[in-house]
Amino acid sequence: MTSPSAAGRIFPRRGELRSMLRLAIPVVIVQVGMMLMGVVDTVMVGHMSPDGSSVGLAAVALGHLYFFGIGVFGMGTLMVLDPVVAQAVGARDEAAVARGMQRGVLLAVMLAVPSVAILLAAGPVLGWARQPAEVVPLAAAYTVWLAPGVLPFFLFIVFRQSLQAFRRTASIVVAIVVANLVNAALNWALIFGHGPFGRMGVLGSAWATTASRWLLLAVLVALAWREIAPRLRQRHPEVWDSEPLLRMVRLGVPIGLQYVLEFGAFACVALLMGWLGTRQMAGHQVAINLASLTFMVPLGVGDAASVLVGHAVGRADATGARGAARAALICGAGFMCCTALVFLIVPNALARFYTSDVAVVTIAAGLIPLAGVFQVFDGLQVVAGGILRGLGETRVAMLVNLLGYWLLGLPVSWLLGIKAGWGPVGLWWGLVLGLAVVATVLLVRVRIALRRQRTRVVIDQAAALAEV
């Protein structure tokens, strides 16, 4: 039985905070490390040359936008491993853990094939989207050379989510640090033509990122082989059975669609920014890159919340699930309040770190304070989504994203930014509105969901019945 005082507490206990931070800090480091690859690409290309920096910066922005616009569905769908593996770990069901990992590898391969095919068609798609003519060819070529990195990226997500569920994060942190160091070195060599390499510019950045993603997977597998190998070697022929695989897909697809809806809203704003001009797109890229970097912290906290809440559900511990949720919300919101202040106080200094183009700096400096406004909402919504994912509830966040971003936020962006002539700032106010709505509704849903008795997600029903 849970006492009313325990159920109604607002602030977490010290033990709950310690448990959350022990898992969240390495997970956040990994998330920041993944984001830093894009930051390094952006910063180095932005300083490539005084004359070509805005075109190169816009090409990298558009290429990253297209890559993640395609890949985000697969990334989100693979997050199904959070409830499946974490709850199995909480229940000490080793067979279910192994089946979940093996199906994760299978799903990664299945998702990578169509993703690569769509990435190879970047040129026509970007042209159809009415992006700046001088940017499209370079952005399309950049995207094509990112395509070989899709499969290792998806497999890395499978093993990362599984290892996080085991609370084995050291190997993930080492792998992401090594990959970032190599990515920075390769960017420096390939973009600017240092050492034995010729000057490749923007395309050199794409080569560096793809090579680093393969290295990321290789280092992680090598370091965590003792954890990964036993689960992959266990023979579970039922992994190939269509019914449990479809159940896992049905649980994961709403997460993938949620990611598509959220990322798609930001992508649409970026495409609308492209209508305004190359420098507007470059300025938007600087501001959104900063916001995305700080977003990695609550995103990591949300991942940690999904694991700890999943563990609690697996062991039928409703009080533990509520404690983990409280700790996650406090950590995520607290960090974003701090970064919001920084964005509001020194926007010009942050913009100048990315580029010396005065026009781009001016545009970015006008957007960075708005990023500060939506920081707190963004942190709350992603942590709330992680909590719901740990509970095994994946459809609500998808529907809320549809409402907040597509039915409210984007129409406001269009009206203010394009029709009313507010430009980049008007486009961003729509994002602020969408994030505020999504965060508010998800927090209400989390409160309702945590009051209910949660049962473990069951993928292999036949196995569960046999155990009973």
- Strand portion, in percent? under 5%
Q: What portion of residues is helical?
A: over 70%
| Residue-averaged pLDDT | 88
The total strand number stands at 0
- Largest β-sheet summary: none
Query: What is the CA-atom radius of gyration, in angstroms?
Result: 22 Å
Low-confidence stretches: 1-7, 464-468
Protein structure class: mainly alpha
Number of alpha- plus pi-helical segments: 19
Query: What is the element string, with H for helices and E for strands?
Result: HHHHHHHHHHHHHHHHHHH
Shape: globular
N→C terminal distance: 24 Å
Number of domains: 1
Describe this protein with a few key phrases.
disordered N terminus; 468 residues; mainly alpha
What does this structure look like?
There is one protein chain. The chain is an all-alpha fold. It has one domain (23-467). It has helices at residues 4-8, 14-46, 53-78, 81-90, 94-119, 122-128, 136-146, 150-165, 170-192, 202-223, 225-233, 242-276, 278-314, 318-345, 347-354, 358-390, 395-419, 424-450, 461-467. Helix 12 (242-276) runs antiparallel to helix 18. The longest helix has 37 residues, at 278-314.
Can you lay out the helices and strands and say which pair or pack?
Layout: H1 4-8, H2 14-46, H3 53-78, H4 81-90, H5 94-119, H6 122-128, H7 136-146, H8 150-165, H9 170-192, H10 202-223, H11 225-233, H12 242-276, H13 278-314, H14 318-345, H15 347-354, H16 358-390, H17 395-419, H18 424-450, H19 461-467
